[in-house]
Amino acid sequence: MAEYDAFFENLQEVPQDEEIRLVIRDLTPGRAKYRCQVVRAKVSSEPSKYPERLWPRLGRGQWVGEPWSIRVVEEVDPIPEAWR
Hints:
By secondary structure, the chain is mainly β. It contains no helices and five strands. It is globular and about 40 Å long.
């Protein structure tokens, strides 16, 4: 199971079970650990709803304590095509 973390300003405002654009950081052990990526994903505060684990953090980096679940729909290129 893959593990990620993400930073949120207000956990109560995070849309549950809807596709959102999000920056996540890979926590899975190995060479890709701490790699950041922009994704479209669905998140849930219910730990077992989606197959991968998400550790939410508040704006200053504090752990919330309980893991959430996440399903990454696709990785998004953070640089718009018009800027290339």
